[in-house]
């Protein structure tokens, strides 16, 4: 009986997801009868020899990550700026938050996103939660999708917002000319952010940001849209020594029904920018 090459490999190497195997095939890590094969959809038979050769991941230095809270279902960390939440491809040679979660999580364990149910941009610091099992992932993801998770961020933005307190309610969509970027788009998805200006020296302002939706790059796009991009935003603003965006608080209901608030102190560097 004939099988697709990727399916035959997934049956032989069940520890890998089929989608990951397809990526490995494309990268040239699979062989059919001792010859490298980069097409997933060719047919093979039981007599054919299929093999997968996945290169070992290079050892990388693991940065220090502080744990805010941990139990049998979740782990909450204080993510440093500069660390990816998870790798974007099948192979990645830098340490990610997902690598940290993988030590204790059974959720998506054989993917590049173990434990991941939400993410922070590489250069954003602060509270990030990982899940350890499928049932917790379902519960937490459901809260995110139904907007039952309350998030508070702090940011240093350029200039001083005209309105010290305001609500930004403008949709966001992917920029078709640059798919990795986003923009305000009338045909995009609903995106809502409220903000409060806490301090300002004229050049920079410290603002409290409270998103009620969770669109990719939402806070960065919204602040740039009103003319006050977040300091250090290389995509929507200007470069600096870091992205001045910090996830300070995450409130949700953990398994067992208890409502919890997890917090991370705002870096002192943020306040010094507006003195």
Pick out its properties.
single chain; 275 residues; alpha+beta; Structural Genomics Hypothetical 15.5 Kd Protein In mrcA-pckA Intergenic Region, Chain A; Pseudouridine synthase; 3 domains; nine-stranded mixed beta sheet; three-stranded antiparallel beta sheet; 6 helices; elongated
Question: How is the secondary structure organized here?
Answer:
Elements: E1 3-4, H1 5-12, H2 18-26, E2 30-32, E3 35-36, E4 43-44, E5 50-52, E6 66-70, E7 74-79, H3 97-102, E8 125-131, H4 134-145, E9 150-158, E10 165-169, E11 172-174, E12 182-184, E13 192-200, E14 204-211, H5 218-225, E15 245-253, E16 259-263, H6 268-272
Parallel strand pairs: 8-15
Antiparallel strand pairs: 1-4, 2-3, 2-5, 6-7, 7-8, 9-14, 9-15, 10-13, 11-12, 13-14, 15-16
Helix pairs in contact: 1-2
Kindly summarize this structure in a few lines:
It is built from 6 helices and 16 strands. The chain has helices at residues 5-12, 18-26, 97-102, 134-145, 218-225, 268-272, and strands at 3-4, 30-32, 35-36, 43-44, 50-52, 66-70, 74-79, 125-131, 150-158, 165-169, 172-174, 182-184, 192-200, 204-211, 245-253, 259-263.
Structure description:
The chain has 275 residues and is α+β, with helices and mostly antiparallel strands. The protein has three domains: 3-52, RNA-binding S4 domain (Structural Genomics Hypothetical 15.5 Kd Protein In mrcA-pckA Intergenic Region, Chain A, Roll), CATH 3.10.290; 62-146, Pseudouridine synthase; 147-275, Pseudouridine synthase, CATH 3.30.2350. Helices cover 17% and strands 29% of the residues. It has helices spanning 5-12, 18-26, 97-102, 134-145, 218-225, 268-272; strands spanning 3-4, 30-32, 35-36, 43-44, 50-52, 66-70, 74-79, 125-131, 150-158, 165-169, 172-174, 182-184, 192-200, 204-211, 245-253, 259-263. The strands form four sheets. Strands 6, 7, 8, 9, 10, 13, 14, 15 and 16 form a nine-stranded mixed β-sheet that branches. A hairpin with a 2-residue loop joins strand 2 and strand 3. The longest helix has 12 residues, at 134-145. The chain is elongated and about 75 Å long. The mean pLDDT is 93.
């Amino acid at each position: 009986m004939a099988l697709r090459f990727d399916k035959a490999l997934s049956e032989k190497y069940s520890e890998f997801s089929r989608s990951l195997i397809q990526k490995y095939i494309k990268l040239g890590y699979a062989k059919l009868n001792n010859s490298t094969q980069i097409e997933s959809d060719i047919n093979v038979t039981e007599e054919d020899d299929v093999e997968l050769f996945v290169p070992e991941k290079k050892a990388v230095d693991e940065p220090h990550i502080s744990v805010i809270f941990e139990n049998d279902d979740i782990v909450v960390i204080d993510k440093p700026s500069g660390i990816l939440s998870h790798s974007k491809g099948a192979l990645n040679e830098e340490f990610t938050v997902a690598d940290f979660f993988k030590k204790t999580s059974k959720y998506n364990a054989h993917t590049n996103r173990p434990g991941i149910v939400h993410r922070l941009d590489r250069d954003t610091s602060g509270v990030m939660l990982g899940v350890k099992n499928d049932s917790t992932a379902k519960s937490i993801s459901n809260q995110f999708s139904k907007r039952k998770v309350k998030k508070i961020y702090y940011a240093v933005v350029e200039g001083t917002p005209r309105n010290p307190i305001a609500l930004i309610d403008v949709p966001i969509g992917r920029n078709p000319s640059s798919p990795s970027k986003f923009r305000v788009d009338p045909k995009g998805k609903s995106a809502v952010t409220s903000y409060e200006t806490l301090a300002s020296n004229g050049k920079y302002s410290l603002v409290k940001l409270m998103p009620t939706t969770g669109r990719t790059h939402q806070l960065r796009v919204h602040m740039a849209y009103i003319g006050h991009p977040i300091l250090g935003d290389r995509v929507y603003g200007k470069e600096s020594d870091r992205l001045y965006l910090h996830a300070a608080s995450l409130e949700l209901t953990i398994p067992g029904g208890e409502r919890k608030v997890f917090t991370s102190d705002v870096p002192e560097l943020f306040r010094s920018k507006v003195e």
